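Working notes for the structural subgroup meeting. M.R. asked for a predicted model of this chain before we commit to crystallization trials. I am recording the input and output together here so anyone reviewing the notebook later can reproduce the run.

Input as submitted:
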Amino acid sequence: MNFYYYPAFIVMFAALMILIQLCVKRSHVISYIISGFGLLMAIIMQIYLQNHTDNLIINQTNSSDVLFVFNAQTSFVSLLLLMVVVIICAQLYHWLKTINEQKEEYYLLFLLTTLGGLIMVSSNHFASFFLGLELMSLSFVGLIAYCGHDQKAQEAGIKYLILSAIASAFILMGAALLYLQFGSLSFSELLQNTSSQILPQWAIITAIIFIFTGLFFKLSLVPCHLWVADLFEGAPLATAAMLATLSKLAVFIILWRLVTLGNWQQYQIIIDILSIVAIASMFIGNFLGLLQKNLLRLIAYSSIAHFGYLLIVLLLINNHAISFSSKSFNAQTLFFYLVAYLFTLVGVFSVFMQLPKIKTLDDLSGLFWHKPVIAITLMLLMLSLAGIPLTLGFMAKFYLVMAAVSQQLWLVLTALVISSIIGLFYYLRVIMAMLKTPEDELKFSDIKSDGSSLSLNLLILFLVIGFGVFPSSLSQFIQQITGSINLKI
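Returned structure, recorded in token form:
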């Protein structure tokens, strides 16, 4: 068995161990230990693979129908995914104690969701992609509706199930049309133009639009965004964190790989669709965020805007780029922005998990005067989401602006600048709420900050502020991995 499969197999083995444990004895502590140990082993193996990608020799076959592609880039994305999951998992034990439900099954679904994400980010074939997508999506249905006594959670679970099924149907229809044209479900075959054009060009464009529609649902991009706020508000906090980070990371990598390998930017209508969706997501996401007082709904609309920004990367793809690992500044921009956004957002949700009873901006009033460390952490994270200098978020937007300027994408660049200014207002509203004089002195008395929470807050601040002030080490590492050679299996 190839080394590259080991992280996914470790996560799968941990899930099986929890299943066996459930048959023998229920224990929250044992489930937490199994999950934590499994994820730590997976991340250690992924770090090893990241450091030895160039030295491992893969026996490649002549067949182009390979299910997975492994290289320094996919290894880096898998490592990023696992790091985000480990940060969330570190807080699951104390957070699950606050909900009145069975605890062990949550860890099982949590690991299965992680496994689905790992499968997706390495997929080079519609079969492996769909397998990972459905494993992740069906696990999310259980995670979203996990709190059976919460009516909003049940409603959110049903909405996600229905919309996920609709999105999958669109993707399957698009994949079927592409298979009719190219005779293969491999992403690598999407670029080849057969001598006999079986389908007219409009049918191929329709297939691409079908796939885009399904993926836009998963990314909650405009106009497929109406469900996301209800989902974030109704889902348990840890589930909302996974939806905002793991799910969107895996889906966007698939979107990036399809557009790059399929050379879909050769069709002007596809470029127009991506531009319209990007601009609409930037403005609508930020405008809706201005209207929110619920913190989770605010973050949900913020995510729409941020992935609208990230769609600019798809407009930067060189028409001659035929490989996911093509060495370009555009790929560096993508990875840097993903690192910045994911670490910042997982930090925001980590703070929310330390404040489980705080739901709205009014609930945050006076937090700074009672829990200054938590408040300062959340302030800096909001500044990073807003793209204020000396934060990782600012450097990510700087990369994006530089890449857009180099390709002279003035329309989307103007939309990015204006919408970012609009978004700044609701991030500042969160900060101003925490600085208000508290009306109720006992409101934060039940919030207990232990050593693990403090250490996690310091780690998040180190990542967001450290790489924001000194971004060269991260950018050099990303620049190094964007020049690797694809290894397909």
